[in-house]
């Protein structure tokens, strides 16, 4: 069997890497973590980033069957629903998305928002399998950054969302509601139990000091040898103490509030009000 096609699309404004993964035999494709552009100052969305993916799929005669989210992102809006409405496909995410929905519908005071995951076409259990054409995909529940984080294992690769960054940048924060440094450590160890040559595709890169280029691909062996937060020899208690201490110094992501209101709805904007306009809610002094 041929190796799957993998093409990355990097959005520098949110430092987000999205991916097309496709079966070269059947031409069936999945998109992982697509970005909906958002101008926060103007309150305006656009689809430039997602349209790059649409054009790639069309120019390579690929049929979109899956739009896969690694978690409910807090740093960019999801273009999952836009891709589904444009090209078809099913939106999938980890089953624990319901915990995120329950938490944030209380924070945003939106009790009418269903917290059962119905906004998504498929909620994945740990170790569940799906297929992209003839390419097998295994879903691993890898929480810690959020309760709903999953990784997608495809051939000799893993798409790990925000769980890990490049070795010179470290690991995900764990101070969002439902996050846990101790649980993140266990999830990282699970990922780093994969063979050393397993390629890890990351959802973000921020160019660590001293590095001039964005990078979003590494390997298990590189992470185990050189990750500045969690390389071999870092025990659980040491990691937890470091991670919790660092998290206490971090500010909130700039797009946290609008992102969550869209992403926990599967990429749909909040319901329009009687004037036909959608609005984001800003909870004052709540977070």
CATH C-level label: Alpha Beta
| Beta-strand percentage range | 15-25%
Largest sheet: 6 strands, mixed
Outline type: globular
Map the helices and strands.
Layout: E1 5-11, E2 16-22, E3 28-32, E4 35-39, E5 44-46, H1 48-59, E6 63-68, E7 77-78, H2 80-87, E8 90-94, H3 97-107, E9 122-124, E10 129-132, E11 135-141, E12 150-154, E13 157-159, H4 181-191, E14 199-201, E15 217-219, H5 220-226, H6 236-247, H7 256-263
Parallel strand pairs: 3-6, 6-8, 8-9, 13-14
Antiparallel strand pairs: 1-2, 2-3, 4-5, 4-7, 10-11, 11-12, 12-13, 14-15
Helix pairs in contact: 4-6
List keywords for this structure.
Metallo-beta-lactamase, Chain A; alpha/beta; six-stranded mixed beta sheet
Could you provide a short overview of the structure?
With 287 residues, this protein is of the alpha/beta class. The chain has helices spanning 48-59, 80-87, 97-107, 181-191, 220-226, 236-247, 256-263, and strands spanning 5-11, 16-22, 28-32, 35-39, 44-46, 63-68, 77-78, 90-94, 122-124, 129-132, 135-141, 150-154, 157-159, 199-201, 217-219. The protein has a single domain, classed as Ribonuclease Z/Hydroxyacylglutathione hydrolase-like (Metallo-beta-lactamase, Chain A).
């Amino acid at each position: 069997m041929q190796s799957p096609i993998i093409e990355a699309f990097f959005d520098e404004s949110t430092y987000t890497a999205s991916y097309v993964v496709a079966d070269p035999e059947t031409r069936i494709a999945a998109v992982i973590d697509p970005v909906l552009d958002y101008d926060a100052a103007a309150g305006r969305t656009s689809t430039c980033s997602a349209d790059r993916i649409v054009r790639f799929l069309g120019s390579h005669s690929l049929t979109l069957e899956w739009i896969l989210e690694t978690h409910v992102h807090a740093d960019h809006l999801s273009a999952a629903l836009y891709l589904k409405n444009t090209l078809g496909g099913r939106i999938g995410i980890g089953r624990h998305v319901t915990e995120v929905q329950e938490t944030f519908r209380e924070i945003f005071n939106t009790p009418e928002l269903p917290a059962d995951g119905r906004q998504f076409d498929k909620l994945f259990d740990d170790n569940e399998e799906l297929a992209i054409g003839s390419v097998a995909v295994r879903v691993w529940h890898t929480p810690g950054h959020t309760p709903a984080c999953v990784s997608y294992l495809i051939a000799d690769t893993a798409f790990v969302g925000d769980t890990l960054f490049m070795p010179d940048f470290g690991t995900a924060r764990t101070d969002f509601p439902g996050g846990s440094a101790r649980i993140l450590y266990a999830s990282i160890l699970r990922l780093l139990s994969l063979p050393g040559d397993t390629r890890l595709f990351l959802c973000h890169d921020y160019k660590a000091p001293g590095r001039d280029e964005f990078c979003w691909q590494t390997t298990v062996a590189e992470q185990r040898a050189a990750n500045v937060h969690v390389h071999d020899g870092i025990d659980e208690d040491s990691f937890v103490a470091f991670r919790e201490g660092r998290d206490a110094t971090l500010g909130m992501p700039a797009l946290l509030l609008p992102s969550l209101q869209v992403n926990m709805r599967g990429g749909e904007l909040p319901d329009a009000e009687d004037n036909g306009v959608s609005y984001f809610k800003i909870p004052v002094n709540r977070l």
